[in-house]
Amino acid sequence: MPELPEVETARRIIERELTGRRVVAVDLRLPKLFRDSEIRDPGMLIGQTVVCARRRAKVLAIDFDGELSLLVHFKLAGQLAVIRPDGARSIAGHPVPKPDGPYPHKSTHFDLRFDDGTIAHFSDIRQFGWYRLMPASQVQPAIDAFKFGPEGTGRDAITSTQLFAALQRRSIPIKQAILDQTIVAGVGNIYADEALFQARIHPQQPANSLSRALVSRLRDAIEWALDMGIAQGGAKIIHQRAYPQNDFPAVHGREGEPCIRCGGTVRKITVATRGTYFCPACQRLRKPKTNVTTV
Ligand SMILES: [Zn+2]
Predict the structure, then answer these.
(1) Is 2 a catalytic residue?
(2) Residue 256: CB atoms within 10 Å
(3) Tens digits of per-residue pLDDT, 160-217?
(4) 4-144 and 160-278 share one CATH topology?
(5) Does residue 128 have a pLDDT over 50?
């Protein structure tokens, strides 16, 4: 599933490859992707120039000069491939079976063709993703409706005070809490596991049992994990350890392997229905604070 780093990678590709380019043709082969769109006909984009690309949590907003914006959510398996006239490719999101294969392929449902010959292909093998074309003035209300919490990384990243306050109200496992997009936006399963490993916190630790110091460590670890993902271009790390040299991801997907920190064995458990990887030696369950003093 594309997570925040994949979506941020897509945003950077759009910014780099498409800003200043004018749409000359639109091919929509699966109209249901626009089922919830304020404007159902993406042909409205013809003649419009890309101004910028923004991201909030995992929602991507592409702004055009005609006061129109295209909101995109990759959901389970969305992908963007931008192909320049010289054939150079930039791909972000869900890996397709053959990233070097021809585009469009059978799961490429939507293309934007630009004035210089560049083509943006939007693919989705699962078809859970969505596209919403709307007047620019409706973007902020549409994003507000998701009730996203502060971002996990970037200029407006959550502070440890904000995170501590949000966690105080919840006794759910900390892993489940940081996956809650209303608490902190954009943390998906892989990055939650990596952040908890980095901060040495057990994924089942009750959210409201963490001290301020641990919450502060967790906040920094969330930012670190997301930044690592962004630095690596996102999706590449999901299906294979393409970067064994820097041990990231350190625990996710590594059940039965030795912990890189202590040599113990990485375990897999289920937390809030999600497959969860951690090192039981490095990430011990801490007893909740009580008023009883033991001598
Ligand atoms: Zn360990």
Answers:
(1) yes
(2) 8
(3) 999 999 999 999 999 999 999 999 998 999 999 999 999 999 999 999 999 999 999 9
(4) no
(5) yes
Predicted confidence (pLDDT) per residue in 95-111, tens digit: 766 767 889 988 899 99
Identify the helix (H) or strand (E) that includes residue 90: strand 89-93
What separation in Å is there between the alpha carbon of 194 and the centre of ligand 1?
12
- The domain spans of the chain are 4-144, 160-278
C-alpha 246 – ligand 1 centre gap (Å): 16
Say if residues 173 and 204 touch (Cβ distance below 8 Å): yes
Give the separation between CA 93 and CA 115, rounded to whole angstroms. 24
**Calpha distance 33→53 (Å, rounded):** 20
Give the integer Cα–Cα distance in Å for 222 and 196.
8
CATH of domain 160-278: 1.10.8.50
pTM of the model as a whole: 0.87
Q: How far apart are CA 49 and CA 58, in angstroms?
A: 23
Q: Find where tokens 């498409």 sit.
A: 18
Respond yes or no: is residue 173 known to be catalytic.
Answer: no
Vertex 96, ends 94 and 99: CA angle to 5°?
115
The packing angle between helices 4-18 and 212-231, to 10°, is: 40
CATH 3.40.190.10 fits domain 4-144: no
Tell me, yes or no, if 3 is annotated catalytic: yes
In the chain, count of helices (H) and strands (E)? 7, 11
